[in-house]
């Protein structure tokens, strides 16, 4: 994988902050941490909203039944980004 550019990192930070502010205690926003989709798939999405309580995940990564939303930020593979961050 190539290193993250600053637009990519900024988009992750801004989206994470927005989700934190909107969700409050209803969901836990994790940034670039593993989720366990199956015994053979453990991706690290840019952002994931999972069931709250950090201590819940002491013995496992969030599984599909605990995941509300997964977000992957794409900035280099798009011809035109529909966001004002990337003019």
Could you list some keywords that capture this structure?
alpha+beta, 3-stranded antiparallel beta sheet, 21% helix, 87 residues
> How many distinct helices?
1
Work out the strand percent. Answer: 5-15%
Number of strands: 3
Tell me, what's the shape? flat
Largest sheet: 3 strands, antiparallel
Read across the widest sheet, the strand sequence of neighbours is 1-2-3
Radius of gyration: 14 Å
Give a verbal description of the structure.
The chain is of the alpha+beta class and 87 residues long. The chain has one domain. The protein is 21% helix and 15% strand. The chain is built from one helix and three strands. It has one helix at residues 6-23, and strands at 28-31, 47-50, 67-71. It has a three-stranded antiparallel β-sheet, with helices on one face. The longest helix is centred in the N-terminal third of the chain and has 18 residues, at 6-23. The protein is flat. The mean pLDDT is 88.
How would you summarize the topology of this molecule?
Elements lengths: L5 H18 L4 E4 L15 E4 L16 E5 L16
Antiparallel strand pairs: 1-2, 2-3
Can I get a quick summary?
With 87 residues, this protein is of the alpha+beta class. It is built from one helix and three strands.
């Amino acid at each position: 994988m190539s290193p993250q550019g600053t637009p990519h990192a900024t988009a992750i930070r801004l989206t994470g902050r927005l989700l934190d502010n909107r969700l409050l205690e209803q969901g836990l926003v994790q940034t670039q941490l593993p989720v366990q989709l199956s015994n053979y798939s453990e991706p690290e999405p840019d952002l994931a909203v999972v069931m709250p309580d950090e201590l819940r995940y002491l013995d496992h990564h969030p599984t599909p039944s605990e995941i509300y939303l997964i977000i992957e930020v794409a900035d280099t593979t798009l011809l035109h980004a529909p966001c004002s961050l990337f003019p």
